[in-house]
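Title: Prediction job returns without error message
Component: structure pipeline
Severity: low
Priority: P3
Assignee: unassigned

Description:
Job completed but the reporter wants confirmation the result is attached to the right record. Sequence as submitted:
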Amino acid sequence: MFGHRWRRQWPCLDLISVHGVRWAICLALLLVAGSARAETVCPDIDGGTGALAAVDVEVRLAFVRAQMARGRLHGAIWMGSWATVHSGLLLTQGILLSSTTNPADRIDHYVALGASGVGLLSVLAGPPAALTEGLRLEKHLREASPHEDRCVLLLYAERSLMKVARKQLFSRGPFFHAGSFVFNIGLGLLLGLGFGHWETAAITSGVGILTGELIFFTQPNRAPEDLTRYRNGQLHGSAPTPVQSFFVAPRLDSTQTMISAGFAF
């Protein structure tokens, strides 16, 4: 009874009593079939070079997830850092505004307070795509059925990486730089033409433009390079990461408010 049940599940066992060669052939076929099931290949990515056509889906998916995870971490650090900076500036200007009675100084602090508020809202309302898409991708993969087609999951991950790359390329363009420049020049003109505070106007515009460029310079921007590496099949090893760091912090003394910034390359 026991032997009969196992022979129903594994017909190759019947071949043992027939001929040893047949058993060897059957075992080899089972091993080959198992090996074929172990790897799954998927169509190449849009715009690919063909280098990914023979790469296992798990290797490709692991690469995309790793790059997205790095971008997600960078995006979280970027957003948290700049939200902290703008919150500090907002608090500083609020303290200065409440502690001064000079009408001219109060005008300057009101303008600086508004600028800090706009900066904080821009960071909170516009989180980097690397952060939002990275979180969305991990949520999608976590909630996917264990039986879902791995190629479908890979396609979703690839499209997420391409979406982040497109947004990062767009953010490198002149639109955002021009917007920051126009906004900060407008604040300067408001102080200068509206109230005659030209010295404060020059400082406000200059610091605002510098801060805007620092925000753009430090935001996540590696997705286009990651996408190029992926399309070329360069999935092993990691791209060189430039060694650089920066800090931005508000400074407050009895007469003025400043922003301190530093870089290390």
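Comment from assignee: result matches the submitted record. The first strand starts at residue 245 and ends at 252.
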